[in-house]
């Protein structure tokens, strides 16, 4: 039987969106979210962006299946066709997701060709129409994740009017990536690094819309930077830092929610993941290698971490059972670390 994380507690006076792990394409699948939930019971977890059309056209189970242990968990949709989004939102609620989120922030050319993602910020009335349609058919929150601007236009009025228009349609929660999205000339990776972070824009949104829940995303790597933002806005979403250094998550419940310190150990988390790998192999035929990739940062910064990581990512060990790989990972390395 899987080791169970401690019982979830009702978040005191804190918003559901106080701390969250960002949707990250090819990374935050259900295996990654199971792993992250072992580390924090409070953080809100997001799926990768899922094409709404793929959900309704035959890929429902493949795209929506998740582990009960993941709650609270949000489904992020990509799309701009109202009826398709409505059907996807209904399915997301039926499958048990705690939130439906519309992606209005992804700048990739592939997403732009589908007429959704960040380019939707240029059509606030369309976004509002889609949001209202989803709000009307589901009971869970319908939220939006977006940027603070498009290309090099840094006019605050652009994002203020976008938020105001969409809020009138019934959206009460906005997760704001504090960079512009440059739709031409930058890769998705460069769009996370080149456009300057402008946290003040997000703080201004909170001042102008005090009745809305405003969470901020972009560039957070430590407790202090997060705490500073929690004095300005309602929540902080963290992405790649958590993926590469997941043990930071194990502090969140204590530092950002005031819970008692966890007694969790990396060894216990790894053992639970190995049990999960066995369950996934038996139930769904999932190979442990597809799961282990998400926990390669678990021993980040510790002595022996390189050897441990190399063992868990060694494709020549694929034929071994996961518990045997774990044993090898904890044997002393044969050479310098």
CATH architecture of the largest domain: Alpha-Beta Barrel
User: For the terminal residues, how far apart are their CA atoms?
Assistant: 34 Å
CATH class of the largest domain: Alpha Beta
Radius of gyration: 20 Å
Largest sheet: 8 strands, parallel, barrel
Please estimate the helix content: 40-55%
Low-confidence stretches: 3-12
Give, in spatial order, the strands making up the sheet with the most strands: 1-2-3-4-5-6-7-8
Overall, the morphology is globular
Q: Treating each run of at least 4 consecutive H or I residues as one helix, how many helices?
A: 16
Please state the average pLDDT score: 92
H-E string:
EHEHHEHEHHEHEHHEHEHHHHHH
SSE-based structural type: alpha/beta
Number of E-type strands: 8
Count of individual domains = 2
CATH topology of the largest domain: TIM Barrel
Approximately what portion of the residues adopt beta-strand conformation?
5-15%
The CATH superfamily of the largest domain is known as: Aldolase class I
